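Is this the right way to post structure tokens for a design question? Let me know if I should format differently. Anyway, here goes:
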């Protein structure tokens, strides 16, 4: 899986993508003039961060093999806003679900979708000191928060909505 942005991203979006690159240990490809088709030739799974009013606003995961995509509206906090420093992850991550969400039936559907599109393509390592924790957030469907040894390190991703499409892109 590779990470990229929409064309001509704002500085805040580039910072967010760099945070994801460091935390998820995934390669970041600067989009420039690359088309989606060219990106699909590089990898079969693309994580594209789009913008809304010069802020990261969408998280789209393209699954080229199955000709489908997951689109989410998001709100974010950057790593520097949470912990004030850049945290690098040289290992995998572990994924945890907060107790409030473990028995929530609606959330189980969201988790299965995110697992299928995103989580299964990450380097999961239960011995890692970086944790991606899925937490309850009253204004949003759920939040993705990264921790290092029980300390929030960011970025924080709040998911507002999720849509599944059975085509890679609209014609």
């Amino acid at each position: 899986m590779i990470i990229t942005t929409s064309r001509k991203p704002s500085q805040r979006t580039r910072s967010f993508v760099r945070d994801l690159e460091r935390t998820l240990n995934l390669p970041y490809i600067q989009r420039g003039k690359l088309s989606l088709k060219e990106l699909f030739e590089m990898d079969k799974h693309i994580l594209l961060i789009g913008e809304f009013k010069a802020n990261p606003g969408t998280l789209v995961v393209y699954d080229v093999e199955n000709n489908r995509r997951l689109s989410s509206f998001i709100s974010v906090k950057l790593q520097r806003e949470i912990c004030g420093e850049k945290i690098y992850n040289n290992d995998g991550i572990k994924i945890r679900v907060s107790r409030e969400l473990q028995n929530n039936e609606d959330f189980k559907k969201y988790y299965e979708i995110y697992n299928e599109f995103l989580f299964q393509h990450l380097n999961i390592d239960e011995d890692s000191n970086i944790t991606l924790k899925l937490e309850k957030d009253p204004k949003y469907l759920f939040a993705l928060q990264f921790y290092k040894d029980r300390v929030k390190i960011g970025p924080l991703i709040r998911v507002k909505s999720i849509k599944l499409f059975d085509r890679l892109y609209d014609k």
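Format looks fine. Someone answered above. Worth noting: The first strand starts at residue 2 and ends at 5. The chain has one domain: 2-165.
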